[in-house]
Amino acid sequence: MSRSCRTLALCLFAFLFPSILSAAPATFESAKTLARQQVYHDRNDHGSFYCGCSWEWVGRSGGVVDAASCGYRTRAQPNRAARIEWEHIVPASLFGQQRQCWQQGGRSNCKKTDPVFSAMEADLHNLTPAIGETNADRSNFRFGMLPGTPYQHGQCDFKVAFSERTVEPRNEVKGQIARVWFYMHDHYDLTMSSQQQRLLMAWDRQQPVSIWEQERNQRISRLMGHDNPFVTGARQWTLNHHNSGAGVVASTRSAERAPASADNRIIGNRNSKVYHLPQGCPSYGQVSARNIQRFNSEAEAQQQGYRKAGNCR
């Protein structure tokens, strides 16, 4: 078989069976690298998310902003204003606070103990390159309409009302934001206020799926093994939508299939002081080898200051 035929066959196979060839990132760090290399590699001249600025790629996932390309002006943080960062369109704190792990130790605890949080944090559908300062100013604020709020970042069409903890992005990305929010809340069974639902439903209607959004969805689906059905039209969001929760089920099953310890004893994490049982604890096989402490019983683990992982059933 010629090289061109082999390439064509591989491409056809990838098209027909994307989930087999997919390699969804396991961590936020790996997700940023994949997003840079296989999703946004050719998009740095097409504009950052909130401001439409060009940038030059630097390193594995970062970038240097060309502020003159979009008339961007630093508001308060020159270092972050000069670089591209990876924005969670649905903030990590928003989806994290809906997980028990967050209540027991915040983001760091969730990263160590909760496979569902890790899947959400690394979900490529929810990541986009943005100027670091706008990423910081957006924080975890809700989206809203701010007709009387002035621009604070030069010519960037991005409004933030700090006292109201509200952000209004440029029109060009409002529809994409809505469909990403629908996807994340549906896939990971998150709750959303009625007010935010109504706003995003309006944005979804007003800003239809663009050619780039379709292409982005296809690129990400080849990596994640599934697409965003709110981009393809396979699903529609209605008020008080019934979530599928497919991502919760998939992440939990994946963690449960993780290889168990050879001696099948209780595993403790020296860093977090959390222990995991060989049955019923999804993160049992996910503790880094250098942090493992083994115990013969829960009593032994507790005597040494360890507590059971919050996601154990």
UniProtKB/TrEMBL annotation:
UniProt keyword annotation of Hydrolase present: yes
GO function term, MF aspect, one: nuclease activity
InterPro entries, sorted: Ada-like_dom_sf, Endonuclease-I, His-Me_finger_sf
Keyword annotations from UniProtKB, A to Z: Hydrolase, Nuclease, Signal
Signal peptide bounds: 1-23
Family: Belongs to the EndA/NucM nuclease family.
Protein known as: Deoxyribonuclease I
